[in-house]
Write a structure and sequence with these properties.
By secondary structure, the protein is an alpha+beta fold. The protein contains seven helices and four strands, in the order ααββαααββαα. The protein has helices spanning 6-19, 21-35, 68-71, 74-82, 90-94, 142-155, 158-174; strands at 40-46, 52-58, 99-101, 127-129.
Amino acid sequence: MAGVSPAVERAAAALALLLLSPVLLVLGLLTRFSMGRPIFFYQWRAGRNGAPFQVVKFRTMRPGPGTDEERLTPLGRLLRQTSLDELPQLWNVLRGEMSLVGPRPLPVEYLDRYTPEQARRHEVRPGLTGWAQINGRNTRSWQERLALDVWYVDHRSFSLDLRILARTVVAVLARRGVEPSPVLRPAEHSPGLAPPESGVTERRA
């Protein structure tokens, strides 16, 4: 079954961008004054059928040397815990690159690390939120999260999308599942194990 139609999603994204423009402006200014330029963080992610696109977020880390935890600013931590850093991705929804609901987009370099079953997560457009995000998010292993993504692909419907959106609001307000992503050692970067973002990237899917 189909989820929310692309036309409805784009209209909703346009309306949300309009209504949230004061919030986006304030967050942009706070990011600019606390971390400097650029305000936004861009990264190539895999979309539907693995097609690459640039996802956009508010920056949460300072540039330069150090671990991700060391470079994460107090504002950045707050943005992540509240998921406000994801708001600019409404632009990706408006462009038709993402959906409101779907598997979260992961970096393109992970494409050759999925099993054939896990790769089915790319049969639909990635989403701002998804089934995995309301069922444990970063508290689950990567294998579990990818399995939840595939479950969504097989069961997606309009009613399920509405349920996920409603539960997302509750989860964000309660700040559930915002623990850091589990880190996989280099030796564990094998097919079937999608490692978390690291290095210069903004960690968290």
